[in-house]
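Anyone able to model this chain together with beta-D-glucopyranose?
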Amino acid sequence: MGDGGVGRRTFLAAMTGSGAAATAAADPAADPAAAETADGAAGGPEAEIRALVGRMTVAEKLGQLQQLAWTGATGPGGSQTASAEQAARKGELGSVLNIFGARHSNALQRIAVEESRLGIPLVFGLDVIHGFWTTFPIPLAQAASFDPEVARVDGEVSAKEARSNGIHWTFSPMMDVTHEPRWGRIAESCGEDPCLTSAFAAAKTRGYQGGDLAAKDRVAACAKHFVAYGGAEGGRDYNTVDVSESRLRNLYLPPFKAALDAGCATVMASFNTLSGIPAHANSHTLTEILKEDWEFDGVVVSDWNGVGELLPHGFAADGADAGRIALTAGVDMEMVSTHLADHGAELLASGRIKEDRLDDAVARVLRLKYALGLFAQPYVEEAEAVPGPTPQTRKAAREVAARSMVLLKNEGEVLPIGPGKAVAVVGPFADSRDMQGTWAGPGGEKFPPVTVLHGMRDGAGRGARVTYGVGATKAADVVVVVVGEGAKLSGEAASRSDLGLPGDQEELIEAVAATGIPFVVVLLNGRPLTVGNWVESASAVLEAWHPGIEGGHAIADVLYGKVNPGGKLPASFPRNVGQVPVHYNHENTGRPYDPKSPGNTYVTGYSDVERTPQFPFGYGLSYTTFEIGTPKASVARIGAGELRRGETFEVEVSVRNVGEVAGDEVVQLYVHDPVASLVQPVRRLRGFERVALGVGEAKVVRFVLGAEDLGFWTNAVDGRFVVEAGRVDLYVGSSSDARSACTIQVD
Ligand code: BGC
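re: yes, here you go
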């Protein structure tokens, strides 16, 4: 047997808690082998895990690597309820997904713990993506807050609700950076930037896990999807990804590293191929980078049927081959398909899989169960199950939703809507409950959201009129047109080739424009949309995304000015679909577009649309105005060697609210290395801070920069990070168009 990862830096060590106290179910400490510990502490969890693995049959070991679905959900292979019960009884099942409810999960757990030979508890997983009962805004919306604290709050509330209802493990946070608004799963992501995504990935992980996975209000997080899933060609879900090593390391990997540094307990492999190798078969990413370079000792779970999909990918000859390839590459647990459980014994007997690797995978699963405290307490207290959202969690969801909204336009200051104004609310989403977004969790069905109409009626001051429907608009001072995409149009397998408003919603906007009454368009959607056909005619546009259970209230808070919007776009909005990809962090061509010589034909771009997006990354307005000063670096020069040794420098900039109301600005710092041995993006976000400022108030924002911010990964497959000598330009401002700059010289 292998050493099961014993002796490495473990997430278990970071998450010690009561998980180490194995007593109730299997009692590996009772085994004499446990006395002899590799980690030096008699009875320590690693020794106990080793001892337990030593007592397991091959079938029991393979069982720990199997996760079955209680109910069907997102792909081939439906509900596996009966086989899950059977396998649990035989002690040949590690985990179940899509089961929840304290009573339900306890009943199944009882079978595993009380009826199987070793009594090893099951770990229960569920996609708790932006809420369990209390639905928060979709992750893309949360990213628009540019405030990672909102993700932490969502994670914390979700963890408490989920754990008390029998869930130990959420398949979240999703951290796939993407330049593809056509890709439906952009809704689950933080958009197009690795720095923003990293900050949110770490914060959400902390929110879910806290400091002790065994606590009654915490769940294990899962960094997904590993890796580069967001690079799907054409934005078609599950599609091919072909990237250079440098792009893999500079763009797609950093959020995963950030999540793991925050203690993330598990990782999920992605459905895509990566330069020809399916992610589930990719030993370079799963083993060399994740497990060896990063010393990750948690569980790598496959995605739904991801091991089985090695066959249609054209990479495995049959089920046994698929199981062999996935385990050998670094997958530790197989979700839904059963190739390892079905063929593992024969693979082991014929030497096609190694016992060391099998034991290592089993140890990883057991380590997760220890950290979650399941050996000590496999059951959940049924009387303590949180039954639904509370006033406090609703308040949190409302604040997060309002904080996530982005004001795209506000001409003639039609917003905020003043007291006593007559408002007509119109549009297919005005009184729609379809605003929770993709992956809304069990609460999405059970606890309908506050609609915009409802929210506006609650938010209108005494005596103010809020009417509903197009017929009401004649008597209105302002019309609020609520349009968007239904939740099913974004998320998994929901890619779109057209990014306009579906159906006849654009005609509705035209009809409202024809009345001549000032109108506000409120967008409820899960991705960047093309708004060019109608944006000129609207007086104001508020991007509210899919805002969750308190969405209607939060929208009213913003429209009536109770909350001054301060969100910024986490992904560029293209002018038309043909322009995609049109992200801010692109590289320069040899013939870049120069706005100073617009007549120049031989430059990159399209001849029928402008080069710039409709709205760039980082863009968003406010009801007030801010002035951002010129950035100043604390040093004029710094040595590359000093940076590599961990030295840092500061960039400071002042920001002042020069408008008439209090508000939030997101101060953003971008880096550009103009001459490098690898062509660099024209801008890279390396710092941001959301600052609240009263009228006339000013603040100095300080960013600390180091090697990580100025250097980059090369194309070396064994991973080489370099900091090169030369000038680096630093831009600070309120969007990726920031012009205010200073430079630093790296020697
Ligand atoms: C998705 C994952 C999800 C899993 C389990 C898959 O289809 O890609 O993100 O966690 O299903 O529901």
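The chain has three domains: 3-384, 401-579, 626-746.
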